[in-house]
């Protein structure tokens, strides 16, 4: 049973002001795979179960954002049940999705029950949130040792490629249908032999004195292209892993080692990257184990913003608690805001529905809270606040909306449905918004959406 007092909640608020990494607290979200589609960033992730003591992964999750600080849970569109050829209820490991010609293709690795090793599958949908179906009814790439962590890349000429591998890296062309291979499976040469592709001997003065540590490709490839140069970012160095990258003037190599770009993840022996450019800014996604009760088998996505150097190199990127400091846009509260949209939170969960667009916040207890960043109340301010709740179990519960050090509105949760209250303090301009839940012991209600007018 979770219960905290108002003073503790206020302390949590002050801590939240200075931190956003990890970016999602309601579920564990390892192996981030971001994808830019128009004005929206979709984040495809794996899912570590709350009680995991080893890799315990049943399904894949989807989030989205338009501002890079507030993330909306879009459901659990894929699970091992999607793939009848896969071991059920576990081993749903790293994945990546891409859109092409109006279809969404989600490439996953799961345990192939025929080979009893991980193989690569592909699911297809008309929308990023699904519903998805297994495109083939069998693995696209049958199970083999090290066949994990697929990364899909579409080149400027329209040719698509699939990269994958642990302790070895392989790739193949994809046909235009995106669900069949257009070439033989080829090894990425050089990455297995550190001496073959550059200065892979690094001094680790802060860890190993003057000893030298050879580092090479481990797993988790992420392929991008910028100004005619191909970038291959990957987990390197064995366990614990750090992030490194190599570059090439050809998708077929040879690849040149460029250096370490992130250290070993905090409280996690693995790290897995995905980078995007969004509205002229560059972001590196990764996972760590710093969320509440997190660890090496309960990992969460974090983000750091970075800039390429003048000669096109990725700089070393330090870990921060702040994450993305400046949003790329503001949140509009005059349009319906799904309750599962938040920058950070405490104590809350989101539903685990596999399909549809209707999602909500659940497991709400006294003292739980969420924060939304960069909410624009405009020049005149709002007069009313609307909130929609479901499954009310405590008719004495309330929802408090706080901003700029004051209470904007208090919503008495006396029944299920849409509730309307007057704004107590008029507020204009851009502010962070805190939503605090109060009530008795036990679960209070489920929260669906809110907006002001």
Précis, in short:
The chain is mainly β and 453 residues long.
Descriptive account of the structure:
This protein has about 450 residues and is mostly beta strands. It has two helices and 33 strands. The protein has helices spanning about 5-15, 205-210, and strands at about 35, 40-45, 60-65, 70-80, 95-100, 105-110, 115-125, 135, 150-155, 160-165, 170-175, 185, 200-205, 210-215, 215-225, 230-235, 240-250, 255-260, 275-280, 280-290, 300-305, 335-340, 340, 345, 350, 360, 370-375, 385-390, 395-405, 405-415, 415-420, 430-440, 445-450. A five-stranded antiparallel β-sheet has the order 1-2-3-4-23, with no helix packed on it. It is globular and about 65 Å long. About 45% of the residues are buried. The model is unreliable at about 1-10 and about 190-215 (pLDDT under 50).
List keywords for this structure.
453 residues, mainly beta, single chain, five-stranded antiparallel beta sheet, 2 helices
Q: Compute the number of strand runs.
A: 33
Quaternary status? single chain
Q: What's the average pLDDT?
A: 91
Kindly report the spatial arrangement of strands forming the biggest sheet. Answer: 1-2-3-4-23
Q: Give the CA-based shape.
A: globular
Specify the number of helices: 2
- Give the termini distance in whole angstroms: 36 Å
Structural class: mainly beta
β content, as a range? 35-45%
Helix content: under 10%
Report the major sheet.
5 strands, antiparallel
Regions with little confidence, pLDDT below 50 for 5+ residues = 1-12, 192-214
CA gyration radius, whole angstroms = 23 Å
């Amino acid at each position: 049973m979770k219960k905290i007092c108002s003073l503790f909640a206020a302390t949590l608020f002050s801590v939240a002001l200075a931190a956003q990494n990890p970016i999602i607290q309601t579920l564990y979200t390892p192996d981030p795979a971001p994808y830019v589609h128009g004005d929206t960033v979709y984040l495809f992730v794996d899912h570590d179960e709350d009680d995991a003591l080893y890799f315990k992964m049943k399904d894949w999750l989807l989030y989205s954002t338009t501002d890079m600080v507030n993330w909306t849970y879009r459901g659990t569109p894929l699970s091992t049940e999607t793939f009848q050829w896969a071991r059920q209820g576990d081993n749903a490991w790293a994945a990546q999705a891409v859109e092409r010609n109006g279809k969404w293709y989600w490439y996953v690795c799961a345990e192939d029950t025929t080979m009893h090793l991980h193989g690569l599958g592909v699911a297809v949908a008309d929308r990023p949130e699904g519903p998805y179906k297994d495109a083939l009814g069998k693995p696209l790439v049958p199970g083999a040792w090290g066949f994990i962590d697929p990364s899909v890349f579409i080149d400027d000429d329209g040719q698509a490629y699939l990269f994958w591998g642990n302790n070895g890296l392989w790739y193949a062309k994809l046909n235009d249908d995106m669900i069949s291979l257009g070439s033989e499976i080829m090894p990425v040469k050089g990455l297995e032999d550190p001496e073959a592709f550059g200065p892979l001997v690094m001094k680790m003065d802060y860890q190993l004195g003057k000893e030298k540590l050879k580092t090479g490709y481990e797993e988790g490839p992420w392929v991008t292209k910028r100004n005619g140069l191909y970038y291959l970012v990957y987990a390197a160095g064995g366990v614990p892993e750090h992030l490194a990258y190599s570059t090439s003037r050809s998708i077929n190599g040879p690849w040149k080692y460029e250096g370490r770009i992130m250290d070993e993840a905090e409280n996690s022996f693995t790290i897995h990257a995905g980078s995007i450019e969004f509205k002229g800014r560059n972001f590196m996604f990764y996972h760590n184990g710093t969320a509440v009760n997190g660890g090496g088998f309960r990992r969460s996505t974090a983000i750091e913003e970075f800039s390429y150097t003048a000669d096109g190199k990725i700089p070393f990127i330090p870990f921060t608690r702040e994450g993305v400091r400046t949003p790329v846009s503001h949140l509009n509260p005059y349009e319906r805001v799904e309750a599962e949209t938040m920058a950070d939170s405490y104590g809350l969960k989101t539903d685990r529905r596999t399909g549809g667009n209707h999602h909500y916040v659940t497991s709400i207890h006294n003292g739980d809270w969420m924060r939304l960043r960069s909410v624009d109340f405009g020049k005149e301010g709002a007069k009313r606040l609307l909130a929609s709740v479901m499954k009310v179990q405590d008719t004495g519960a309330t929802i408090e909306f706080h901003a700029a050090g004051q209470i904007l509105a208090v919503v008495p949760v006396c029944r299920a449905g849409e509730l309307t209250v007057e704004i107590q303090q008029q507020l204009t301009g851009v502010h962070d918004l805190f939503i605090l839940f109060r009530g008795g012991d036990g679960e209070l209600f489920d929260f669906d959406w809110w907006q002001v007018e």
